[in-house]
Amino acid sequence: MVSSLSFLGSGLALASFVRAGFSPSSSSNVAVYWGQNSYDQSTGSLAQQNLAYYCSNTDIDVIPLAFMDGISPPITNFANAGNNCTAFADNPNLLNCTQIADDIETCQTTYGKTILLSLGGSTYTQGGWSSTTDAQNAAQTVWDMFGPQTGVAIDRPFGEAVVDGFDFDFESTVDNLPAFGAELRSLMDAATGKDYYLSAAPQCVFPDAADGSTLDAVAFDFVMVQFYNNFCEVSNFQTGSANQSDFNFDVWDTWAKSSPNPDVKVLLGIPANTGAAGAGYASGTLLQDAIAYSKQYSSFGGVMMWDMSQLYANSGFLDEVVSDLSASSPPTTTATTTLTTTTTTSSSGSNPTGSLVAQWGQCGGEGYTGPTQCESPYTCVSGGAYWSSCQ
User: Fold this and answer.
1) pTM (2 d.p.)
2) What is the spatial distance between Cα 32 and Cα 114, in angstroms, rounded to a whole number?
3) Cα–Cα distance between 22 and 12 in angstroms, integer?
């Protein structure tokens, strides 16, 4: 995602497709990031509006707030929405946002939306923590600031409002992130009163350089994979091809099944407009086919878009995505390959299984019993205790 310092032509949703928050059993969740005003309009209807304005849209389930782009010390940045906030006296980089607080509660109670706080963003530069203890303490601080009130004396940017969970959008190396994530997961699981969700927004390139080790160590409820700005972006989907050379939703589906939460959902992350997130925008038949292809995988959980301001400037696009998600017809050519699909070869060299693993295929990891040799010129690279892939 991209941090920024600086009416959608959506009709009524299909009657059977009305949305009310993230559903772990659904393959049609729609998540849209809010907070960065990336369309970069300072005034008018296409400037970023307040959060509750978007929550009234019945086509949207999940809204991650972007971003808490500093943790130790805490920093928040919500672009033009920050104009309605005031800085805390003891930390000028942390905003006290009563309007956002009120909107969070409206979004949850009136519209049934799932509101997450996204941590990181492209401007996060703190690098993590020097020890697991420091990382665990940081997780406790984040929980005290945005989770249920516990009586701890701490600045709470959203006052009495409580988010529904947290999203990891770290885009550079973060030391001891698995320890941070595990502690935050533990705090969420121990809380009562409602469900809390943990999500992440890794790049589509597998394994993700920033979040990969954490994804392999911590149970996430859903991941919103950024299928843009990379060779594996959705715009490189090959319509009609059973074997995708670039687009790699199958890789993420296989990871999901062997992850700490085998029921984790994978959302197809896409730009909401041309130029919204760099490269990778797709629409029309190409997007429809890519969604149909992805829907065949059991981990598929819907679509994520970056970001709200771009979406509302792209008239009709949300309708298009919702229509693609609701379509029941299968793709014209369904893929039969998965991450562990192999190709028989007669080339020199031996492999106990008699086959080689293609690029991005799994070649190792705890509990893995498949082939371990990669097709030339790739080599097996460890992505954590449970995952190694041919790269």
Assistant:
1) 0.82
2) 11
3) 19
Helices (H), 302-348: 308-312, 317-326
Lowest-confidence region among 13-17, 63-67, 116-120, 340-344: 340-344
The letter for the amino acid at 320 is: E
CA 302 to the chain's CA centroid: 11
Decide if pLDDT at 336 tops 60. no
Give the torsion through C-alpha atoms of 240, 246, 247, 250, to 10 deg.
100
Task: Say if strands 165-170 and 114-121 run parallel, antiparallel, or are unpaired.
Answer: parallel
User: What are the boundaries of each domain within the chain?
Assistant: 15-336, 340-391
Q: Is the Cβ–Cβ distance between 148 and 193 less than 8 Å?
A: yes
Residues 177 and 146: beta-carbon distance below 8 Å: no
Q: What is the pLDDT of residues 253-302, one digit of tens each?
A: 999 999 999 999 999 999 999 989 889 999 999 999 999 999 999 999 99
Residues 57-72 have a mean pLDDT of 98
Angstrom CA distances, 25 to 265, 301, 306, 325, 351, stand at: 9, 8, 23, 14, 39
H-assigned helices in the chain: 51-55, 98-109, 132-146, 177-190, 212-215, 249-258, 284-295, 308-312, 317-326
Catalytic residues: 171
What CATH class has 15-336?
A: alpha beta
| Contacts of 108-111 spanning 24+ positions with Cβ under 8 A | 108/164, 110/55, 111/20, 111/52, 111/55, 111/56
Q: Which residue has the tokens 């790699």?
A: 248
Q: To the nearest 10°, the Cα dihedral for 285, 287, 290, 295? A: -100
**How far, CA to CA in Å, does 223 sit from each of 89, 126, 226, 288?**
36, 23, 9, 21
Which residue's structure tokens are 């893929």?
A: 335
- 339's CB contacts (< 8 A; 6+ apart) are 250, 251, 253, 254, 255, 360, 361, 362, 389
Q: How far apart are CA 201 and CA 222, in angstroms?
A: 9
Task: Give the three-state DSSP class for 34.
Answer: strand
Token pair for 122: 């492209």
Residue 330 has what pLDDT? 56
> For residues 276 and 287, what is the distance between their CA atoms, to the nearest angstrom?
16
Question: What is the largest distance, in Å, between two alpha-carbon atoms of the chain?
Answer: 70
Measured between alpha carbons, how far is 243 from 13 in angstroms, rounded to an integer?
Answer: 33
